[in-house]
Structure formats: C-alpha cells, structure tokens
Design goal:
Length: about 325
C-alpha cells in the first residue's frame, strides 16, 4: 500500500517577541490572566507592515528543499494553507513558488483556517495515493497579527505569526498518514469570522472604521466547539484505526488554548508527557501551529522513526479533523 509520508519538515518564526507584559500596555489585561486562561506567555510578530505571510513560509520551504536535496524543478505541486494571504490574488502559493524558482508546478492556497495543515496533508495524500504527484510541498503561511485588533483584549493576546513547510512523498513501508478524518460545517461560520477583505464587504472607510477587517470571535462558543469536534474526530480516527492509547506516542493538536489542548488530552486519557505543546512561546499561529510544534519537537529529538502521532485541529468554517501518522525518515 502506498502512503503519504512527511519526508522533510521545517518552520520559521519572525524575530520580534511580543510578551504578555507588552500586550498589557495596549489593553486592560495582565500576564496572569493571559497565562492562566490561554497558556500563552509570548508570541512572535512579523513587524514589517509590507511583508506578507509568504515571507514566513519561504524560509521554511527553502530549508525543506535544501535538507531533502530537492531541486525546485522536481516539485510537482505546492499547496499553501493560509488565513492571511498576501493578496486576494495571486495565491500565496504562487508567490512562494516564484521566490524559490519552483516553476510549472500546480500551486494553490487552501483556506480552512486553523485546520489548514491537515487539509493540505489530506489533499497531498490524495495526490500521492492516486499517483498523480510524487513530490508535493505543503506549507502554512500565517501573519495572523495582520487581522488582530490590538484594542480588543478578548482576541489580541491569542495570535502570533509563523510559517512551516513539509515535503510529502510516497512510502511503501507503512510510514505517513494511516488514518484521516477531515470535516467542516458552515453552520458555525459567523462565530469566527473576518467580515471585510473579501467580496462580501468591499474594503471601505466605513468598514475599516467599524473594525470589520479584524478577527471577530465568540470565544466561549468557539472554545466549546473546538473541544467537541476535535475529540469527536480523535474518536473516529481511533475507532477506524482500531487504536488504543498504547498505539499513540505523541498527541499534537492545534495550539489555540492550553485548556483546549488539555481537554483533548484528557479525552484520550493520555498523560501530559505524550503531548506536544509549544503554545507558551508561539501562541496561535493558525494553520502553522501543528507543523511548527512538530518541527520543534523533532529538533528537540522527541520524534523518532516509528513513532505514532495523533494530530487534531479545529478552526473557522467550522473546519476540523484528526489524523494518525507514523513518523518515518524525515529530514529536519
Ligand atoms: O484557532 C481558532 C480557534 N480559536 C480558539 O479555539 C479560541 C477559543 N476560545 C478561547 O480560547 C477562550 O474563549 C478565550 C481565551 C478567547 C477567552 O477565555 P474565556 O475563559 O472563554 O473567557 P471569557 O471570554 O468568558 O471572558 C471571561 C472574562 C470576561 O469578563 P466578564 O464578562 O466576566 O467581566 C472578559 O471580558 O474575562 C474577560 N477577559 C479578559 N480579562 C483580562 C477577556 N479577555 C481578557 C483579557 N484580559 N485578555
């Protein structure tokens, strides 16, 4: 059986560290509230106002190409997950490909918010299993701070900027994506939405004055749904794979809130040691959060060939899903 394996992985974070104490100078909050309610202490910010999300993914894609010895002309497909594209068009994928001299590949963006990396992996696995493509770059490019309102204390502490990339190739030894469950339900769309920037509310002075270009989130509602849907997807994957806790070495979920991560872990009855979590210093980087956390864990020597991972994500849409992945030979 052919599976889609992650054979290269990298991430990139911009230099500027935005601490909770600095956020407390902008809105009525404090380090203690943010730390206890979210688990976040600091996040990174791409300070250059004119640099788009692509600038966060380009270094990660470049690193993956170099580490795996992949020539740009060998890349057949590049899929970019982003909730903060450089422009409405062209796609951020095309901008990234151009910067790295990847020509003639099928390049496109996926907009499924914080579930974006799992959506990309699902698409890549379809191309790999069907034999359509054999070398696929999937990446996440997220300048989340571009849609954050630093006057809104209910959202401004949550998000950070970051990018990540992976090379996906066919494997015949049982490594890679083994079980996947990916879903969406648009009924939740108004609870996590950016109203202006697309075609429904054309950018205008009125729209910007009303803050419609910023993220709008019903935090409590999103929190509850994130827990409900991630745990249900995890259950589906465990059932389909006939898995128990003993079959799982690591759990890595979307990094939105430490309390959400804890809830999913408790649902799996897993000990804290099995959880990959970097939210403290990175915050919520939307679709980039899972690959950044995985790459950091790999660099720390945590991920070894043969390790079995449970991934889960939830985001605007609503979109959500879970995957069971066996870690193989991955250049980091
Ligand atoms: O990645 C996409 C998916 N997104 C998520 O998964 C995020 C899901 N939601 C959350 O993580 C949490 O709901 C938040 C972190 C956004 C909020 O935490 P919460 O425990 O749900 O707090 P809350 O919204 O119920 O607010 C509790 C209180 C409120 O005050 P009152 O009304 O009780 O007087 C808020 O005004 O905390 C207040 N509050 C704050 N206080 C200090 C809200 N934000 C802050 C803040 N500092 N930054």
């Amino acid at each position: 059986m052919i599976t889609a394996a992650i054979t290269g992985l990298s991430h990139y974070l911009p230099d500027y560290v935005l601490t909770n104490d600095e956020i407390a100078t902008m809105v009525d909050t404090n380090d203690e509230w943010i730390t206890t309610r979210t688990g976040i202490k600091s996040r990174r910010v791409l300070k250059d106002e004119h640099a788009g999300s692509s600038q966060l993914a380009i270094p990660a894609v470049r690193d993956v190409l170099e580490k795996t010895g992949t020539a740009p002309e060998k890349v057949e497909c590049l899929i970019c997950a982003t909730s903060s594209p450089d422009y409405t068009w062209p796609s951020t994928a095309c901008i990234i490909a151009d910067a790295l001299n990847i020509r003639n590949a099928m390049c496109y963006d996926i907009l499924s918010a914080c579930t974006g990396f799992l959506y990309c992996l699902q698409q890549a696995q379809a191309f790999i299993k069907s034999g359509i493509y054999k070398k696929i770059i999937i990446c996440s490019a997220e300048k989340c701070t571009s849609f954050v309102n630093y006057k809104d204390r209910t959202t401004c502490a949550l998000f950070g900027d970051g990018g990540a990339a992976a090379l996906i190739e066919p494997n015949e030894e049982g490594y890679g994506v083994l079980v996947s469950k990916i879903h969406s339900d648009g009924a939740g769309n108004e609870h996590l939405i950016r109203l202006c920037g697309g075609s429904a509310n054309i950018p205008s002075h009125e729209a910007v004055d009303a803050g419609m270009h910023f993220i709008h989130q019903d935090g409590k509602f999103v929190f509850k749904n994130a827990v409900t849907f991630m745990t249900s997807a995890v259950t589906e994957v465990m059932e389909e794979g006939n898995l128990t806790l003993d079959d799982i070495d690591w759990i890595c979920t979307h990094q939105a809130n430490k309390r959400i991560i804890d809830a999913v872990r408790q649902h799996c009855k897993a000990p804290e040691e099995k959880v990959i979590c970097n939210i403290e210093n990175v915050g919520n980087t939307s679709s980039a959060s899972i690959p950044i956390a995985l790459h950091e864990a790999a660099l720390e020597g945590k991920l070894k060939k043969g390790d079995r991972l449970l991934l889960a994500a939830f985001g605007s849409g609503f979109t959500w899903g879970a995957m069971y992945v066996k870690w193989g030979d991955c250049k980091i």
